Amino acid sequence: MYAIEMKDYGEVNVLVATQLAEIPTIKPKQILVKQHATAIDPYDVKFRKGLMGTERALPLIPGSSVAGEIVAIGSEVTEFSIGERVAASPHLKSYAEFVPVGRSTVAKIPDNVSYTQAAALALGAQTGYQAINDDLKLQVGESILVQGGAGSVGLTALQTAVLRGATDIYTTAVNNGVDFLKKFNTNWHVIDNHTERLTDIIPKDVDAILDTIGGTAIEEGLKVLKPNGRLVSLAGSHEDNRVTSIYLKSNGEQLGELLQLVSEDKLEVVIADVKSFNVENLKKFQAMKHVVGKLVLTFD
Ligand SMILES: NC(=O)c1ccc[n+]([C@@H]2O[C@H](COP(=O)([O-])OP(=O)(O)OC[C@H]3O[C@@H](n4cnc5c(N)ncnc54)[C@H](OP(=O)(O)O)[C@@H]3O)[C@@H](O)[C@H]2O)c1
Question: Which CATH class for the 2-123+250-298 domain?
């Protein structure tokens, strides 16, 4: 099996191509997927650098997005069959031709959604969708600020907020993200975090905030949050009792809903570039900065 492993924690040169003699075996509740596409997520880059801890034994196969076809199913799996097109966001192991995934994290891909789109949605978009629906539980008529709206998480969160009937949608961005968001939806109030202040642009405190940036973003957000508002952060914590730190709980059912929304043209996934899956392209993509849209590697 062709795979890309990390031989150490560090810069992109720790990524190496390898041929493994065996394909992974699966447990009773797992599915084996033959990969067609995988995406680059900030998590993969942070993990490689050792920012998520360095305790895992190396070498290992990193990567966290799967889109491919089922080639084997565990003895307790009844809801999927061999040959079906599926997506998932496992923790590690996706930079390989074959990936084992837990059945509860797997979603079927609708016929008119490509493997590239599905891989691009698996982690970041699923996180944004879950944050708005489950963590913020955004209600019709509520106002929201999404910090970092041009990212994978933010862009899906903004679109999900529209679908849930939010009014007054504010978002922050930097660099190319500012113009991108202004064009993407002209109803959104886009704030350039390099040149503008939230308190100058947002006239009335908002009901909900999703922070994908961390650092000072929570402190800044709290200045425009209603006294009974709620702020959820994917990138930091705060002692204010309106703030909750959250993380993705991989959920196949939810990923399936998201794929269905894309299939029905109700939600858009933006792809910046697609290249073949190999170590040179993975290194190139992991080193890129300030990209608007997802970077995807395909196995075809
Ligand atoms: N805890 C979890 O379960 C979980 C799950 C998914 C994601 N995350 C985290 O959530 C964060 C966002 O993920 P993502 O996939 O959306 O990342 P992404 O696609 O790289 O997007 C991040 C966006 O934020 C922009 N940005 C950077 N600094 C900013 C600032 N000060 N103000 C406004 N925008 C700013 C970036 O612009 P430039 O590129 O131009 O700098 C980029 O458009 C990452 O840190 C990721 O690791 C956590």
Answer: alpha beta
